[in-house]
Amino acid sequence: MRKGLLLLVVLVAGLVLGALVAGTARIGSLFGRGADPETIVSASLQSMREQNRLVPFTARYVAVVTSEQRRFGLAARKTLIMPGTVRYELDLARLTPASLAWDRASRTLRVELPAIELAGPEVDLAATREYDQGGVLMALTDAESALDRANRTRGQEALLAQARAPAMMRIARDAAKRAVERSFALPLGAAGVQARVVASFADEAGSPGRSYLDRSRRIEDVLRDRAPRTPANTPSS
Question: Whole-model pTM?
């Protein structure tokens, strides 16, 4: 029977990558008041992509697993208590101009986020504890090493299973959305642009989806339309 114990959530939503927020917040001041929102958003996107990965949430879990072996009428059992930390990451390099849509009428920026990725678990070896029974079988055979391997594998699987629990994924996704929204909203506000930023995942109920993005202007399309055009060459007489 799988046993899992949630020990501690060590980072709360809102305590996110400082460098990401600080970097994007400085962008607004570079453009000054009156800058157009599309240009600010494009610069913010580039700054975020350079950060590479965002870790909006980290949690610590404890797995309790037991393995048993029987040979020659003897039995051996080992129980492993394994604490480990799992990071919930967002690959910012997967954010592209196609992930953004600007609705000028409502002054709303919609951001479609890539899926959350789990990194780890990072096992706390110093806090790991083992309890065993059946010393005779372990002394005469390789049962102990086999039980250790089985417990380590099952322990890591149990940690990841806890990390993937719907409640924990929901907390991580909410933290990621708030971090990304803030990273776009801060430079916009610093430049005097009043705008609403809404980040969401593609599989969420209420996500803008393709229909909204098709109706709104993509950032890349807006900037391309504003690019200076080279006048066509006219034949000389």
Answer: 0.72
